[in-house]
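ok here's Pseudouridine synthase, seq below lol
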Amino acid sequence: MERLQKVMAHAGVASRRGAEKLITAGHVKVNGETVTELGVKVGHHDHVTVDEVPIQTEAPVYILMNKPRQVVSTVSDDKHRKTVIDLLNDEVKERVYPVGRLDYDTTGLLLLTNDGQLANQLTHPRYEVDKTYVAKVQGIPTNDELKHLRQGVTIEGKVTAPAKSKLLSSDQQKQTAIVSVTIHEGKNHQVKKMLQAVGHSVIKLKRESYAFLTLKGVQPGDFRELKADEVKELKRLVKLDK
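and the structure came out like this:
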């Protein structure tokens, strides 16, 4: 038996807090009876609906994918572009969804799950989960520009949290460089905007790691399930008191 809001979160209906709001607002029924109080526990044999729509009480699934370019990080796309769900090729029967997003032309590590609570925690800046990107940029960043990234840059009137930045290589002839940037925020196009703010537009961008997870052994377009100890470590990270 588990608390109703936890079951709803695992089913991907909403975050646990969002599920609590749905319950108290009278949107949830258990075995045909409306539930408005928190603390109710349900089991696998209970029938749970949200606004009369049954929820799927599936076992939690955790996927690590190496997203290629020209694929959208959504469950569906109104422009009929290929999505990360399409890449699963029906091999994952549970209804999973991306944890955060990678841009259409950005490649690299993307997590997918049906564990709504963990997904919500991983994407919340409060938990400061590091994500490392490697970018090919126009021009060669100076030490001062890299230092500026570490201190935080102003994007759309707001200063970003301090980042880790490092020049990995440079091509003097082509005037391009490879830069590593590690952030724990997740604003839209953030890394591209940060590099643009210090004068370097991004040519290519790849997310190399997510917390302790890397792309080792996972080719572009492929995926694997997280191991039990990896899931346990992710949950430990978001439970740490920041």
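fwiw The CA atoms of residues 30 and 48 lie 5 Å apart. kinda neat tbh
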